[in-house]
Amino acid sequence: MDFKQIVKDVLLTEANELEKAAQKISFDIEKAIDLIINSKGKLIVSGVGKSGLVGAKIAATLASTGTSSFFLHPTEAMHGDLGMIGKEDIVLGISYSGESEELVQILPHLKRLNIPLIAMAKSENSTLAKYADVFINIAVDKEACPLDTAPTSSTTLTMAMGDALAVCLMKKRDFKKEDFASFHPGGSLGKKLFVKVDDLLRKHDLPVVSRETKLKDAILVMSEGRLGSVIITDKDNKVFALLSDGDLRRALMNDNFSMDCKVEDIATIHPKTLKNKELLASDALQIIENYKIQLLIVTDANDKLVGVLHIHDLIEAGIK
Fold first, then answer.
1. Domain residues for 302?
2. Is 270 inside any structural domain?
3. Which UniProt keywords apply (predicted)?
């Protein structure tokens, strides 16, 4: 049995159904977007079985991209959770057949409460579609299942239609990266878009010495600081140089090396610094990688030391 060919056939079948759906988009999708945009309430997604699972994903995508949304199982709605639907809300009902018993049961109650209904189904003649204010067609000609029965192409199209709806709403609302970050503060994407240098900055107990400090004393400070480097400042606390372990190793190769020399004599003068502690941590990581350094010294506008951002701090925070 050629499983590689089977996989290829499934992907091509589903892709073909998506392509056909893209060629027959109706004006109803625009009506759905306008209805949601003009609503003062939430968009509540409901469905059972595979449609319910896809609906839960659609609700999650909407909620994370600027549209207040949650999933409500129709069976739970019939046993008290109908009260979760407010008078300003909209319901997105999903049923490929449009006849799912559990979902159909709540339709008269939605109508009684004057709750607008957007329907995703395969036929405008289905019960779900007839109750709807807006009908979105998710019909497919062929499921990828060899028996043409298990929801495969149809669930893929339903999810894709939900994604398309979410993207349209994002564009309509001019949803930006900063908005996305506010909904994803703990995820890797959110950290890249939300966490700032100041959030990770080491500001206390920094390994700092003056320009006149002897190397042997600076090495002790370096060891205690656990950054592998020592920051050298002048009398005004302005950053003058940086002594790294690399600088120290290179100095050891010099025939005239002395532990009594001034630290500034072997340090890197005017090291790379950052004056904007409000910069995104992900952008700071890019600077660190571009300059092939381990730490980034952060200063104020007058070059006075504010703190240090080490690459390990970025990695531990999930900024990659």
1. 197-316
2. yes
3. CBS domain, Isomerase, Metal-binding, Repeat, Zinc
Q: What's the burial of 103, exposed, middle or buried (CB within 10 Å: 0-12/13-18/19+)?
A: buried
pTM of this structure = 0.71
Q: In this predicted model, what pLDDT tens digit does every residue of 50-87 receive, in sequence order? A: 999 999 999 999 999 999 999 999 999 999 899 999 99
- Measured in degrees and rounded to the nearest 5, phi and psi for residue 299 equal -125, 170
- The three-class DSSP label of residue 209 is strand
Residue 21 lies in a domain: yes
CA distance 77 to 109: 10
Q: Which residues fall in the annotated binding site? A: 73
List, as residue ranges, the binding site for Zn(2+).
Answer: 73
Mean pLDDT of 161-189: 86
* Shared-domain flag, residues 136 and 28: yes
The Cα–Cα gap between 308 and 208 comes to 11
Q: Is the pLDDT of residue 180 over 90?
A: no
Q: What is the pLDDT of residue 58?
A: 98
pLDDT at 230 over 90: yes
Does the residue 180 lie in any domain?
no
Domains contained in the chain, number: 2
User: From residue 81, how far is each of 46, 75, 77 by CA, in Å?
Assistant: 12, 9, 4
The letter for the amino acid at 100 is S
pLDDT(119) > 80: yes
Measured in whole angstroms, how far is the alpha carbon of residue 288 from the centre of its chain? 23
* 62-88 CB burial, b ≥16 within 10 A, e <16: bbbbbbebbbbbbbebeeeebeebeee
Q: How far apart are CA 264 and CA 113, in angstroms?
A: 77
The region that residue 244 occupies, defined by phi over 0 for left and psi between -120 and 50 for alpha, beta otherwise, is beta
Q: Is residue 23, in this structure, part of any structural domain at all?
A: yes
